Amino acid sequence: MGLFGRSGGVRIDVVPQVVRPRQTVTATVSVDKPLDKVTSARLEWGYDNFYRYHWAGRADSAAAAGNDTLWMAGEVGTSYGSERDTDDWVCVTRVEVPTATSEFTQASASFKIPSWAPGSSPQVARWGCRLVIDRGGRDVDERGEFQVVIGAGDVDAVEEPMERYMGNGDTEIDIVIPSPVWRAGDPITGHLACRPQQDLPTADIAVYWQREREHHPLERYPGQGGSLDGPPLHLGKKIPMHGGTEFGLPFALPLPADAAPTATAVHSSLSWFIGARIFYSGFTSHQIERVRRPIVVVNAL
Amino acid sequence: MTAAQPPAPNEPPPPQRGQTLEERGRDVSAAQAEVEAETSKVKQYLKAASPRFLWQMAEGYPVVLKQFIQFCLIIIYPAWIFFVIFAAALHVLFYVTVYPVLWLLFWPMRAYQKKHHPEEYAESQRKK
Asked: Do A221 and B7 touch (CB under 8 A)?
């Protein structure tokens, strides 16, 4: 502990370091030397929730619109720089530590991870046990971190319908997967069923994963959500598309090994999709087709 | 979407989540909302010319920055008045010069729509 160190010689050890929902973690607080003049002490179990918010003025004000059109003609409508990443502490359970002698020496508490807990990831949550001590001298605010991983048994996923988000349906596309739950690092296996509704030009067909992050802070004005498309897995180029036929294309699409689990937290949430797209060859009036099916990504067995 | 399993009886309930961009709706000041809700164009320009409209463009900024922006907005208020008058003049100019030409040019099309698609025509003429 240096001259300006903030830890005050407080250590929080959390065991186990990696847990799953419905399991119990225990935090043990130890101090180098007893803290005196303590008025209150509490242990909070919860997570730091990462999200993006709009900080600069009102998002849809006339000034913002004017700013976009006049000064940032190159990036019309982006209001570049007016959003910011941040995190807020979400307390799930609070444990008061008795401080009858106004001296703090040690504390310990255990916590059962709730079944709805969002998994730890840099996009959504960083779980931890936080010690807050109000005292006559310098206050203490320390946290011990642990990781929550989500297993396939922890989610109760249901089959969700397909969603078309681009194109006019010249080809009916169905993404057929055996289960809606997939583990990070594993390939998603399934097949794509395509039914061209009419004779169409040859097509370039690919599948990809899509990760969508949404921000919904309690107080601040939310930032724009965003979706990230994974690298496309080409299933074939120049595929003939005869009207009225149906064909299937099997695929094994790898999910990134560090994929963040699907999660819903207080200020932000993360959802995953498997998408498919069709590019028709030639400069014709056939639009690009894009469909997607929601999946649930977990990161433990 | 995840449809996480229902909370067990002995665990804390999930905390209330916030609202997304779509659920919140447009983020504008009270003065701007008034201007946008105004149907009369003349009143819209008059309301936009009020110092309150300009002043409230500083809303939502962090403290200090907000006061500085309000200060700047007061200074440029004469320029704002000039801008509003200029915009209104352009608006009037459009209705005096270009609009009558277009109105004449599209007469046959309007007459056709009025005869063959009376409902659609009525809808297109309705004041929004």
From this structure: no
